Each structure stands twice: as structure tokens, then as C-alpha cells.
Amino acid sequence: MQRHAPYPQIEHTDPSDQTRKDFTSDQEVRWCPGCGDYSILAQVQRILPSFGIPREKYVFVSGIGCSSRFPYYMQTYGIHSIHGRAPAIATGIKSVSPELSVWVITGDGDGLSIGGNHFLHVMRRNVDIKMLMFNNQIYGLTKGQYSPTSPLGKKAKSTPMGSVDYPVDPVSIALGSGATFVARTLDVNVKHLQAVLARAAAHKGTAFVEIYQNCNIFNDGAFVQLTDKDTKSDQTVELEHGKPLRFGKKLEKGITFDAQLRPSVVDAADVDESTLYVHDEGSEISALMLSRLKSPDFPRPIGVFRAVERPSYDGMLEDQVKQAQKGSRPTVQELLDDGAWTVE
């Protein structure tokens, strides 16, 4: 397998001297004023210099939607690609150039409607890419139609009487597809967002991060209960590996599961600490159960649901290429004849 570089190289940078400015392009950022995308862009640009990777080793791939303008604003390589197909393009890039750090930027519409098939297959393959899904529960670029993640009854331009579609949950789908790293965070929770992105970047394999992102034009306040200072401590529970699930302004509430795995909210002072559910990032069952906790009956989990290691698709493919290069190569006819049978 030969690798080619048909594009001009970005000027090489010393990764030890990189700052946010090195990852900021000269393009005017063209999102609506107040859009949550600004915060996500700023945090990505802030954390990348800390990884010690030259900017010419990064590639950002997007599909179609408001979020998909992201590559224009990064001073790295980037592709503004086809609706829903960014995971396929990213898989190709990582397969032929495994030394690159490949990031996919998508939205709930781009990634879960037309791109749903590509989404689940990149998860099961465990391609070593980082996927950020900006979830605002609406189609923003096409001016306010309901999306796959919009809640039941959502009134929008395409559903004036309210949506009759049950929403999908990105975290549950990622976990059900076998993803090895799955997390959720919020656009305005800057410290939490940075911490989650840093962990995703360090993961070897597909790292999926759902980011609740406010569309202040077409779906303003969709996550206000999770971000407002007066309600967020009661409406969110932060997942920490090896620690019990506690929430509230003074962490006075907890979550338990009974023998039938039914969850309950309890006053932490009324139960033994050992009865509270302890989060385990290595347990697929634990992650799936927590992904199904829904407001308003339960706080919404944020943080890392699952983080496990297994060989990545691109890594195993690279091993096959090296193995093939060492030995004799079969002819096309030999490959066609292998395992073939003849009807007499």
C-alpha cells in the first residue's frame, strides 16, 4: 500500500510552542450570535496545544449542518464533506494515514438521520477517531425542523401540531453499537467540556462525545434545566469512575438500583453509602443503564459512560498491510480461486 500526499503541506510547527492562536484560522466565524458552537470551538482550540501534536497532524472532517462549518475555523487540515458521511471519509483518512489525529464534527441531524448507518458502523469498527456530536435537538441550518433527538410533541416548522416521533438517544446508540469511549457534556460547562475532550483525545479507538448545545434561534433553552445555576445541581449527575452517584447542591441525593435494576432517587442521609450505585466505566451494562436515566424523574448523567480498550480497526488493518508486504503477494486469480468451487 502506497501513501501519497497530493496536497500542499501546512508549515511545520513546534508542538511545544503551540497555542490556541496556532489552531485558529483566519476565517470569519459565521454562526448566529449566542450559538453554543462558539464555546465548543474555543475549548477545542484551547486543549489541542496541550497534546504535543503538530497542527499539521490534525484533520477535522464534517458533514452538513451548522456544526459542520467547524473545519473552516481550525488552522489544520479539514474536509467539509457529504451529508452524514463524515465517519466514512474519516475512516478512509485514518486507514491510509494512521499517524494523523482525525476528528469528526457532526450534529444530531447530520449524524443520526441520513448519517445513522455510518454512525453505528464507525462505532462497531472502533476506528481511532474522535467524534463530537453537537446535539441541539433541532435542524438549525435548514431553519428549525424537528430532528431525530427532538422530544415527543416538539412543535417546529415541520411539526406544527407536535412531533409524533419518539426521540433517539445518541449515547445509547453509541453504546449499543459497541463504542469503546462514550461521554456526554454541555457547551457552557467549560471545565467539564475541556476535561471530557481531553479524555476523548487520549483514547485509542472511537471516542464519541455528545455535547448538549443550545440553538438560541430555533430551540432556545432546550437544556436550560441542565445549565441554569439554580437547577443544574438537581438536574444533572456527574459520572466519576469508582464513585457513587450523588447529586444536588450539597450532594444530598443519590441513585440506587434494586435487584430488578430499577433506579430510584434517595436521600443520601437516609441510606448506607454502600447502597448507592457506583459508576464503573468498564461495565457495558452499567453504561447502558445510566444512558436510560431521563429527566424529569432522574438527573441527566454527564461525563464518561464507558471507557475500555480493544484493538482499533485502523491498527489491525495496518498490521495486515505490514504482514502482506513481508510475504509473497498472491495474484488476482489466486485470490479469486481461493475457496472457489466448480459445478460439474
Task: Give the helix/strand layout.
Layout: H1 37-47, E1 58-62, E2 77-80, H2 86-96, E3 101-107, H3 108-114, H4 116-125, E4 129-135, H5 170-176, E5 181-186, H6 190-202, E6 207-212, H7 224-227, H8 232-235, E7 236-239, E8 246-247, E9 253-257, E10 263-267, H9 284-291, E11 300-307, H10 313-326, H11 332-337
Parallel strand pairs: 1-2, 1-3, 3-4, 4-6, 5-6, 7-11
Antiparallel strand pairs: 5-11, 8-9, 9-10
Helix pairs in contact: 1-6, 2-10, 3-4, 5-9
Keywords:
disordered N terminus; alpha/beta; 3-stranded antiparallel beta sheet; Rossmann fold; about 350 residues
Overview of the molecule:
It is globular and about 70 Å long. Helix 1 packs across helix 6 (190-202), helix 3 (108-114) packs across helix 4 (116-125) and helix 5 runs antiparallel to helix 9 (284-291). Residues 1-8 have low confidence and may be disordered. The chain contains 11 helices and 11 strands. It has a domain at 15-222 and 311-337: 3-Layer(aba) Sandwich (Rossmann fold). The strands form 2 sheets. Strands 2-1-3-4-6-5-11-7 form an 8-stranded mixed beta sheet, with helices on both faces. The chain has a 3-stranded antiparallel beta sheet with strand order 8-9-10. With 344 residues, the protein is of the alpha/beta class. The chain has helices at 37-47, 86-96, 108-114, 116-125, 170-176, 190-202, 224-227, 232-235, 284-291, 313-326, 332-337; strands spanning 58-62, 77-80, 101-107, 129-135, 181-186, 207-212, 236-239, 246-247, 253-257, 263-267, 300-307.
